[in-house]
Amino acid sequence: MPQKPIICTIDVVLLCLQGSALHVALLKRDKPPFEGGYALPGGFIHPEEDADTLDAAARMLNEKTGIASPYLEQLCTFSGAARDPRGWSISIVYYALVPAELIKPDRAPGLQLQPVDQLRTLPFDHKEIVLAAVERVRSKSSYSSLPVYLCGEQFTLPRLQAVYEAILGEPINKVSFRRKMDELDMLEPVEGALEAGRANRPAQLYRLKNQYRNRLSLSGRAMTANSDH
Amino acid sequence: MPQKPIICTIDVVLLCLQGSALHVALLKRDKPPFEGGYALPGGFIHPEEDADTLDAAARMLNEKTGIASPYLEQLCTFSGAARDPRGWSISIVYYALVPAELIKPDRAPGLQLQPVDQLRTLPFDHKEIVLAAVERVRSKSSYSSLPVYLCGEQFTLPRLQAVYEAILGEPINKVSFRRKMDELDMLEPVEGALEAGRANRPAQLYRLKNQYRNRLSLSGRAMTANSDH
DNA sequence: CAAATAGTGTCTATAAGACATTATTGG
DNA sequence: CCAATAATGTCTTATAGACACTATTTG
After folding, report:
1. How far is residue B50's CA from residue B53's CA, in Å, rounded to a whole number?
2. How many domains does chain B have?
3. Distance from CA of A96 to the nearest CA of B (A)
4. pLDDT at A3
5. For all residues of chain B together, what is the average pLDDT?
6. Is B229 within a domain?
7. Does B76 touch chain A (CB under 8 A)?
8. CA separation, residue A135 to residues A48, A77, A116, B21 (Å)
9. A194 touches chain B (CB under 8 A)
10. Which residue has the higher pLDDT, B132 or B226?
């Protein structure tokens, strides 16, 4: 009955922190439509290869950026007649968070990091998609351990607090923050490891407890009284 | 390249409250696979007719159950090689909440309401889908006005509190509940309308403020300290 | 007026935030 | 010792919950 089949793709919003600004990874497109433009890494499902769309997203991310992200979650599906000039399409979108050091531009030709808060227009509805992913990350960060995925293996509490503040966009009370980290019960100190080097008391290094390597730790109460869930 | 195209469908989880138990609407399937089994209302996208998948979900819900739900939101997309015997498939799932009175079995042949907390195995991965929808509803209910969609046009505060308690599965402090409703600022009293009839002080009837007819009101803090977001 | 439930006032407990103090480093 | 920042103790403020009291109806 339908003349044209529905175009069915996967896109991945790969986020990292540079300085205190959240950035998204964009790739130069090497075929039409929007050839030469920068867009989200994405592509078609390979039914023979991918068990499901999460699988497909992980494969795509790895193929296009060389990254195997420990955190990769479905955002939602964007769809409709208007979003792709080729026809009626859907895109099942996943998002990933990684430390910026993990993104090696030489490993991925045509890769570019753009700050999400001053994004130019992107091909398809990719700007809208990125903004939806950022909103999700900001919202989840206020009651979960999500931002630790933006840090490396080991990090200090002041560093982690700075990461939370960068995402939430507002300062957090130091005592409350440490109480909350304690309550989330996801961190363990790296015995004897301190971050020295500067002219002050060195900070204790922490790492994620094993059980939270691939799972979020959740808190009943939000970090700050922000109203966007 | 791909021998078989990906099977691309929409499913809708329609929820309502009967007594104090959340129920899901299931339809008797009139074609294979799983012919004769009870499954979620769903079907194929009509690219000529539907502007996007939300549109398709609304159409499908209306065609199959006769209901035009004011609240219809995307849950997420289920996918993979294993979930449909016909082949590699995706299902973009939406969920809706309506007052039970709105579901008229005579209007929809083969429709059945099942309590979500004692669900038997369903065709495809529909049981998993229902459980995911219920978890989303429970989680969102703890910090939003979502449960009002399970009430009719007008309702009393004790009734609304009972609806919240039915969804969250635990009693709520009356004073806290009323403070929260006040804070959400989504209700207005229906002037002069009281729910009389019983041998006690009659309760004030309320309705949703106009601006929240099709939008949730959100609170920064959760209703109860439940840890599943 | 007794029973029943609506609606409100107020005290207590808990959690968040402000602020100050101590700790530990390099120079 | 001074500057800088980590880490923690403690007081204040805000929010949530317990409980009791008043209000309004039917029979």
Report:
1. 7
2. 2
3. 16
4. 62
5. 93
6. no
7. yes
8. 34, 15, 11, 33
9. no
10. B132
Could you tell me if residue A13 is inside a domain? yes
Helix (DSSP H) and strand (DSSP E) numbers for chain A:
4, 10
Tens-place pLDDT, residues A25-37 = 999 999 999 999 9
Q: In the predicted model, what is the mean pLDDT of residues B171-178?
A: 97
A6 in contact with chain B, both atoms CB, cutoff 8 A: yes
Answer yes or no: is B133 within a domain: no
Cβ of A203 near strand D (distance < 7 A):
yes
**In whole angstroms, how far apart are CA B8 and each of A75, B4, B92, B141?**
18, 12, 8, 30
Q: Dihedral through CA B147, CA B150, CA B156, CA B160, nearest 10?
A: -30
| Tokens of residue A32, six digits | 């039409």
Contact residues, chain A, for B8 at CB < 8 Å:
6, 8, 90
Cβ–Cβ below 8 Å for A48 and B2: yes
Q: For residue B48, how far is the Cα from the chain centroid? A: 27
> Is the confidence at residue B229, as pLDDT, over 70?
no
Q: Which two tokens stand for residue B14?
A: 């329609």
Q: Are residues A185 and A207 in the same domain?
A: yes
pLDDT band at B227 (very low <50, low <70, confident <90, very high): very low
User: Which residues in chain B have their CB less than 8 angstroms from residue A47's CB?
Assistant: 2, 4, 6, 81, 87-88
Question: Residue A142 corresponds to which tokens in the numbers above?
Answer: 């206020």
pLDDT in tens, B56-87: 999 999 999 999 999 999 999 999 999 999 99
Domain that holds residue B160: 142-212
CB-nearest to B220 from A5, A79, A226 is: A226
Residue A205 · residue A154 · CB < 8 Å: yes
CATH number of the domain that residue B115 is part of? 3.90.79.10
